[in-house]
Amino acid sequence: SEATAGAEEDLPDRTEEKIRVQQLKELFGEVLNQEEISAESDLFRRGGSSLTAMTLTALVRKRLGLKMEIIDVFQAPTPKALAALWDMIKARENSRELHKPQAKKRDRWAT
Question: Are 107 and 98 within 8 A, CB to CB?
């Protein structure tokens, strides 16, 4: 049926989001030094600070390759909420790359 076909099309996105949530849960646990992190664990309610948010942002950039900014953590302080922002963060990153001013190549022999 069409409903079944539509649900099947959503599976890869849901699987990918589950993976992202799991990866973020692990990083939240690492920066908070806590083992029991759920998808709904709020970084700040679990004892995190702005420094913790900066550390999380750096780890996400390094390990997951997502150019997350600290404001993203303040806007979405749970693994589930950050995972939901993933595509928006990627789009922002791609948009910045497209609009980045290109350095003019200089002829090194020009005077």
Answer: no
Q: What is the pLDDT of residues 38-63, one digit of tens each?
A: 999 999 999 999 999 999 999 999 99
Global pTM reads 0.76
- What is the spatial distance between Cα 86 and Cα 23, in angstroms, rounded to a whole number? 12
Closest by CA to 19, choosing from 66, 77, 52, is: 66
Q: What is the 3-state secondary structure (H, E, C) of 3-54?
A: HHHHHHHHHHHHHHHHHHHHHHHHHHHHHHCCCCCCCCCCCCCCCCCHHHHH
Question: C-alpha angle 39/40/42, rounded to 5°?
Answer: 120
Which one, of 66, 59, 62, 97, lies nearest residue 84 by Cα?
A: 66
Single out the residue of 64, 63, 62, 60 nearest to residue 72, CA to CA.
Answer: 60
Q: Please give the structure tokens belonging to residue 51.
A: 């420094």
The answer to whether the beta carbons of residues 29 and 78 sit under 8 Å apart is no
